[in-house]
Amino acid sequence: MHMLNVNPDTVCRLIALAHVFHAKEAVVIPEEPTSPSDDWARQVLADHADDEVFQEFRSIIEDLEPDQQQEVVALLWLGRGDAALDDWAGLLVQARDDWNPRTAEYLIAHPFLAEHLQEGLDLHGYACD
Questions:
Q1: What value does the CA radius of gyration of the chain take, rounded to a whole number of Å?
Q2: Which tens digits make up the pLDDT trace of 45-78?
Q3: Which Pfam families does this UniProt record tie to the protein (predicted)?
Q4: Phi-psi label, residue 58: left if phi above 0, alpha if psi -120 to 50, beta otherwise
Q5: CA 108 to CA 6: how far, in whole Å?
C-alpha cells in the first residue's frame, strides 16, 4: 500500500462536498477538462464562485501543500482509470508537471469527481465512513 501524504479523511470531506456540489441542478459542466489550465473550468466556476459548498471545497484544497494537492489530482486520475495503482509514481509525476494554483477548480469541474476520488482511495485501501 502506498502511503498518502494527504489525509484520507480530508479526501473524504472533499468527496462529500463534491457530491453536494454536483447534485445542485444549477451546476452544468460542458465536458471533462483535459488539463488544469482549461479556460472553461474557470467559466464554470465563475458562475459558482459564491457557492458555499465550493468555497469550502476550495479552502480545503488551498490549505493543502502543493504535493498534497497533486496527490488528490492523482487520486482522481487513478479512480478514473487513467493508470493502474502500480503506476502511482507516474501519476504523481504527471500531477506535479500539470500542477497549477487552480487545482480546486480543476477538480470540481469533473462531474464524477466524488466517484473517482472514492475509487482512488479504495485502490489505496482507504474507505470513507
A1: 13
A2: 666 777 899 999 999 999 999 999 999 999 999 9
A3: DUF3775
A4: alpha
A5: 17
Distance CA 20, CA 40 (A): 21
Are 33 and 109 in contact by the 8 Å Cβ rule? The answer is: yes
46/119 Cα distance (integer angstroms): 28
- Other CB atoms within 10 Å distance of the CB of residue 15: 19
Q: What does the alpha-carbon distance between residue 6 and residue 10 come to, in Å, rounded to a whole number?
A: 7
Q: Where are the domains of the chain?
A: 8-124
* DSSP H stretches of helix in 24-124: 39-46, 52-63, 66-80, 88-98, 103-108, 113-124
Q: Average pLDDT over the chain, rounded to whole?
A: 87
| C-alpha span between 91 and 82 (Å, rounded) | 9
Task: Report residue 20 as a C-alpha cell.
Answer: 453536494
> For residues 118 and 95, what is the distance between their CA atoms, to the nearest angstrom?
18
- Burial of 62-91, coded b for 16+ CB within 10 Å and e otherwise, reads eebeeebbbbbbbbbbbbbeeeeeeebeeb
User: What's the predicted TM-score (pTM) here?
Assistant: 0.85
